[in-house]
Amino acid sequence: MTTSPDTLIVQEVAPRDGLQIEPTWVPTTEKIKLINALSHMGFSRIEAGSFVSPKAIPALRDGDEVFKAITRHPDIIYVALIPNLKGALRALDAQADELNLVLSASQTHNLANMRMTKDKSFLGFAEISTQMKELVKLNGTVATTFGCPFEGKIDPNEVMRLVENYLALGIQNITLADTTGMANPVQVKNIVRQVLTLITPEQLTLHFHNTRGLGLCNVLAAYEIGARRFDSAIGGLGGCPFAPGASGNICTEDLVNMCQEIGIPTTIDLEQVIQLSRKLPALLGHDTPSQLAKAGPNHHLHSPPDYIKTLV
Ligand code: COA
Ligand code: ZN
């Protein structure tokens, strides 16, 4: 994958964020097929599953089998979401390339989602980092960075404190996540600007949900001030089952189409992503929020109606 400093790096999260909230069981073989198909579309990372309590997220209880059976593309980092040491040990056993450790800026959401305080999450992450930082890549996510469905506004100083905590543990790649789409472009610029005083654009990922229709606006705002790495989900699937009102991630094909139309380079094959996205309703039993899957890209033109020939 050739990239330039302008390239927007797309990281696909549908196999994890997308499927974790689906009420219908997606068979292990179908998950593997989905990840294998995504592996040929130009993504730098694919979040292929999570290693959390099967009671908390039954939809992803087969993470071990999925990670062991996928056909890995050598250029792609296959990521696993991790809440605790037990999950990290499972992920190492399944040969995940990167562990994405997650806690929330909101104490209430952390308690609802992870059933522990932020301090307790960090105690587990410290243990994971001590045991595994030489063995596997580590990424630290701050969920609800831009707002919490329980607590409302989040103090940016608290986000900075949590980022600094990750850095102090030797975890240098950071994701700022907008769990329920509460971010706006002005706020995004403020927080991203502050976080980029601590880490480089290469170390920072933005994870936006389109719950309130501002997902791609937030991408552009972050990109304008130097952010380059973004999570998105094919079909616009996704959402946290422990965040009331959660809905889909920004949609991969809608994101890539926007980039192509305005001249931001990506490494993604848009046509292939659209084709795969169009298969999702059959897999999941419902329509998806994808705009591009329905409309097609701008250059897909239609034959004009015959009657216009009589009008000229
Ligand atoms: N993988 C598999 N099983 C796990 C696990 C993991 N990572 N962590 C804990 N468990 C199991 C324990 O072994 C125990 O099993 P048992 O009942 O058979 O003895 C059970 O889960 C309870 O363990 P405990 O440590 O008390 O966990 P908890 O009930 O306090 O839940 C979490 C804590 C973090 C495991 C749970 O809240 C969780 O998985 N949250 C993740 C939610 C999520 O993925 N949200 C969306 C992504 S942001
Ligand atoms: Zn998410």
Notes on the structure:
This protein has 312 residues and is of the alpha/beta class. The protein has one domain (9-311): Aldolase class I (TIM Barrel, Alpha-Beta Barrel). Helix content is 38%, strand content 14%. It has helices spanning 14-20, 28-38, 63-69, 85-93, 107-114, 118-132, 156-168, 185-195, 215-224, 252-262, 270-277, 280-284, 292-295, and strands spanning 9-12, 45-50, 77-82, 98-104, 137-143, 173-178, 204-208, 229-232. Strands 1-2-3-4-5-6-7-8 form an 8-stranded parallel β-barrel, surrounded by 8 helices. Strand 5 (137-143), helix 7 (156-168) and strand 6 (173-178) form a beta-alpha-beta unit. Helix 2 crosses helix 3 (63-69). The longest helix has 15 residues, at 118-132. The chain is globular and about 75 Å long. Coenzyme A binds next to helix 4 and helix 5. Coenzyme A (COA) is lined by residues 20, 50-54, 56-57, 81, 83-84, 86-87, 90, 102, 113-115, 143, 240, 242.
